[in-house]
Amino acid sequence: MDSSTQSIKKLYYSIGEVSKSTDLKQYVLRYWETEFKQLSPSKNKAGNRTYRQKDIDTINRIKDLLYRQKFTIEGARKMLSEERGSEIDNLTDQTEPKGEVNLEILIKIRSELKSLLEDVNT
Question: CA 102 to CA 26: how far, in whole Å?
């Protein structure tokens, strides 16, 4: 099992857990929050950052762009924005016969709604 795969799946991870799993220092994660609008972990009542799996995926993508592909921060920011735009385009471009529903999209929507509800309740 590699370091980016969690042995126990949780809804929220602390900055320490994310730091360990991504091999990044905590100050780097906090700095990236200021540079990338796509990375915005919520905070709990105590003010601690709570990262969801989508935040960790974004961190790993940023790490790949900056460290492996050698993008600048500005270049990585543009790449993430373009990728996000193409994801939205792909979702809207999918034409399915009337009455059929894409199960994968519904699962993603349900997951996002659950996490939003949990954020509201905390």
Answer: 38
Regions of the chain with pLDDT less than 70? 1-8, 86-101, 122
The CATH number of residue 28's host domain is 1.10.1660.10
Quote the DSSP letter at residue 40: -
DSSP state of 42: E
Buried (b) or exposed (e) across 33-45, using 16+ Cβ within 10 A? beebebbebbeee
What was the pLDDT predicted at 26?
96
Helices then strands, counting H and E runs in the chain, come out as 5, 2
Question: Per the domain annotation, does 50 fall within a domain?
Answer: yes
Q: What's the number of domains the chain is made of?
A: 1
Instruction: Indicate whether 113 belongs to any domain.
Output: no
Q: What is the CB neighbour count within 10 angstroms for residue 15?
A: 17
